[in-house]
Amino acid sequence: MKKRIIQIDEKPPFLEAVPLSIQHLFAMFSASVLVPNLLGINPAVVLFMNGVGTLLYILITKGRAPAFLGSSFAFIAPAGIIIAAKGLGYQYALGGFVVSGAALCAVALIIKYFGTKWIDVILPPAAMGSVVALIGLELSGTAASMGGLILSGTYTQIDPKKVAVFTITLCVAVFGSVLFKKFLSVIPILIAIITGYIASAFLGIVNLDAVKSAPVFAIPNFQPAKFDLTAISIILPATLVVVSEHIGHQIVTGKIVGRDIIKDPGLDKTLLGDGLSTMLSGFCGSVPTTTYGENIGVMAMTGVYSVWVIGGAAVLSILISF
After folding, report:
1. How far is CA 115 from the centre of its chain?
2. Please, where are the H alpha helices in 139-258?
3. Residue 85 reports pLDDT greater than 80
4. Global pTM?
5. N or C: less crowded end of the chain, CB within 10 Å?
6. Among 318, 92, 104, which Cα is nearest to 223's?
């Protein structure tokens, strides 16, 4: 039976759109909250700005380029340096994020008026592919460690329960994407996550103490950016990594959805959306955003490309930040 495809501009029925949006939300969630946790900041404001940034991106690209904007890993190292530096701190890293977003907007304007050929000289395809691959491969050890497969400072011995949950979740996602039929065939990742949670509860490794002690409603911790030339000079070079990653993601997304996104809506618009989102995030106290490979993977596995679904995930991201 031919796999169902939900096209970019297709609006699924509400009862289908909700689980599809939740699936995208779950796909980006762990990575998006990992970045603020590594930097020692509140993830709530990051989830809020990821949702706002994604909606802004969809608006700027006129719904022609499906992508969820999550927390960028490219800035972890330079931001960590600024946070640890005497006389600086996270607010000065925010200033660097704002300038980095402005740089992305500047690149978008250059592309609009001069085209994309100059990018092939500065960032050849081989280099861009390597950068995109390295960003993901660098984090593969973290995924394996969290799955209980690798010993680390956090996990000093193999935990059979964690390995079992990891294996069950992975198998349901992989085999479900091939074997599930009808509507289930487009939500294998959501089913895998639910199955993994049930397995975790059954094995006794679910702890809800933090949830019980948390307030029902809380405003995200917004904070203003501060600017310092030293901090900006440390943050700004990471923008090249984001440009490489962004272009690579647009090319891959275009192959998946069957449309040349570099031309329609245009790389200038997608970069502008990413840049403005990063600037806004910096001004509000959040980390830079970037198009997420996790959500591109969801589109590839499920055949669901709808910006309505991704927009729904963005709204959910905003709601859970409170």
Report:
1. 27
2. 140-146, 160-179, 188-202, 209-213, 229-235, 238-257
3. yes
4. 0.84
5. N
6. 92
